[in-house]
Specification:
heterodimer, A: alpha+beta, Fumarate Reductase Iron-sulfur Protein, Chain B, domain 2, 2 domains, five-stranded mixed sheet, two-stranded antiparallel sheet, 9 helices, B: 245 residues, mainly alpha, 3 helical TM bundles of succinate and fumarate reductases, elongated, binds protoporphyrin IX containing FE, binds iron/sulfur cluster, binds FE2/S2 (inorganic) cluster
């Protein structure tokens, strides 16, 4: 049985002085296997060519299609319309700079985060490109890979009450990244150095354990476990038990 | 890579976070004990009388020393003030933050986010509710007993405050313990979602259990208070003490 879907979509172009923020309503016949990615493209092709939204991979890999879907952040390309009621409200992810309509600049935010938390492997010595790389146990590599699956979609930030209230909070994405580099034996940073990065109220001690991040992360990363683990480690450093 | 020493000032947030959890845990566990003491009225008046005298050192020193109770109340008050002061760090500081959280919570329909608001509201309410109760206990430590307490509840019109305080404590403490568990990763397993669900169930179970016990105890005090209203102010003495000349 085919349904008629009613979309209320946030429209605003901050670059256009005449643009006022508001919701536009569209209707569309649902098709089998339809995702929000397909629906939005149909709306743009058939009803409003000016509708702005981001997509690259359509497969939950690039992280560019995050948006608020009926109140909760999620990836449009991974959301089937059949999983939603016939009235669908789409809003851009909050916290991030609005480009237009549903398109936000997560890249800029993630870049700033990366610089702030120095999310790259800190080596002791120059790498010698001619030398063979140190081997790593498969379990270790597996564990790092697991944490590295984050696609920087920003859903965890938009789902986090703490991040919404306090703009400086690094969010689950930031904490997960620190967990990823801590797990990497090639990264020679000490616990104290990690503490300098996240051992404060903008870091792990700002997290109020609301677990919005855990419940929306489209890659199902173990954010709750990682944050609790970091909290224990960082308290040991900060409260002087280590 | 060289170790950078941690500046003394940067340890603040870690210590404060730990202290907040420690005071919260202490208070939550203390409130369980407290409820068991108070609910001894459901067993008998003598049972509660015995518990009350016990805390006055009656069975150690041979006479009641109410000042002991005052001192202990002072200690609990100190812990609550510390816990509340630490919790203030997490309160929304501006109207805008408050509005943002509220609309976020309404949109998300996410239980743990909503429970945080419950914790905030009940915590805020306890600033006032707990203060009144603790002040009375500290200033009238000798007036804790089957009749004195029941008179305070009924003739002293304290029951509405105790009713509100009961709900505030049990909701807040239940959510608080659950949050402690997820925050520090207690009882986590290879399947965090499942352990979380179990902890959530346990949390509601505890809250309902202590709410039921609390409501029954409060009802018992009200019942005694109504019956005793004509002679309000008179203290209870167990039969075995009355028998003595
Ligand atoms: C009287 C009994 C009380 C009990 C049993 C209790 C228990 C707890 C527990 C176990 C936590 C979790 C701690 C953590 O997340 O680190 C907590 C957090 C909290 N408490 Fe209390 N508390 C009490 C009184 C109060 C009072 C009087 C306030 C008043 C301001 C308050 C405000 C809060 C707030 C806002 C939080 C959340 C903090 C956060 O998310 O990090 N509590 N409480
Ligand atoms: S942690 Fe999950 S929700 Fe957050 S940015 Fe990475 S993939 Fe997205
Ligand atoms: S647990 Fe809650 S407060 Fe912490 S990062 Fe996740 S959503 Fe934010
Ligand atoms: S389009 Fe790449 S994640 Fe949705």
């Amino acid at each position: 049985m085919s349904r008629t879907l009613t979309f209320s979509i946030f429209r605003h172009n901050p670059g256009d002085p005449g643009s006022r923020p508001g919701l536009d309503v569209f209707t569309l016949e649902e098709a089998p296997g339809m995702t929000l990615f397909i629906a939005l493209n149909l709306l743009r092709d058939e009803q409003d060519p000016s509708l702005a939204f981001d997509f690259v991979c359509r497969a939950g890999v690039c992280g560019s299609c995050g948006m608020i879907i009926n109140g909760r952040p999620g990836l449009a390309c991974r959301t089937l319309t059949e999983a939603l009621p016939p009235r669908i409200t789409l809003l851009p992810l909050p916290t991030f700079e609005l480009i237009a309509d549903l398109s936000v600049n997560t890249g800029k935010w993630m870049r700033a985060l990366s610089e702030r938390l120095q999310t790259w492997v800190h080596l002791d010595e120059e790498t010698d490109p001619d030398r063979l790389e140190e081997p790593m146990e498969p379990e270790r590599a597996e564990a790092i890979y697991e944490l590295d699956r984050c696609i920087e979609c920003g859903c965890c930030v938009a789902a986090c009450g703490t991040a919404r209230m306090r703009e400086d909070f690094v969010g689950a994405v930031g904490l997960n990244k620190i967990a990823r580099f801590r797990a990497d034996p090639r990264d020679k940073r000490s616990e104290a150095q990690y503490f300098e990065l996240i051992g404060d109220d903008e870091g792990v001690f700002g997290c109020m354990s609301l677990l919005g991040c855990q419940d929306v992360c489209p890659k199902s990363l173990s954010l709750q476990t990682q944050i609790a683990f970091l909290r224990r480690k960082m308290v040991q450093i900060g409260a002087g038990f280590a | 890579m060289k170790d950078v020493p941690i500046a003394a000032t940067s340890c603040g947030p870690a210590r404060l976070d730990l202290l907040q959890s420690a005071t919260g845990l202490f208070l939550a566990l203390f409130m369980w004990l407290h409820m068991f003491f108070v609910s001894s009225i459901l067993l008998s008046k003598d049972a509660f009388w015995t518990v009350a005298r016990f805390f006055e050192g009656y069975f150690i020193f041979g006479r009641p020393i109410p000042l002991l109770v005052s001192a202990f109340v002072g200690f609990i008050f100190f812990i609550i003030v510390a816990h509340a002061a630490l919790a203030m760090r997490k309160f929304p500081a501006t109207w805008r933050q408050y509005r943002t959280f509220w609309s976020h919570m309404r949109a998300m329909h996410h239980a743990d986010t909503t429970l945080w608001m419950v914790q905030l509201v009940t915590g805020f309410a306890m600033f006032f509710l707990a203060s009144v109760h603790l002040y009375l206990m500290a200033t009238h430590p000798e007036l804790i007993g089957p009749y004195a307490s029941a008179d305070r509840v009924w003739s002293g019109r304290m029951w509405p405050l105790y009713l509100l305080l009961l709900f505030a404590v049990e909701l807040h403490g239940g959510v608080g313990l659950y949050r402690l568990a997820v925050k520090w990763g207690w009882w986590s397993s290879n399947d965090p979602l499942r352990s979380r669900l179990r902890m959530k169930r346990a949390k509601w179970g505890l809250t309902l259990f202590f709410l039921a016990l609390g409501l029954m105890s409060l009802a018992a005090y009200i019942k005694i208070g109504i019956a005793h209203a004509p002679s309000a102010g008179e203290l209870y003495l167990p039969d075995w003490l009355q028998a003595q000349p």
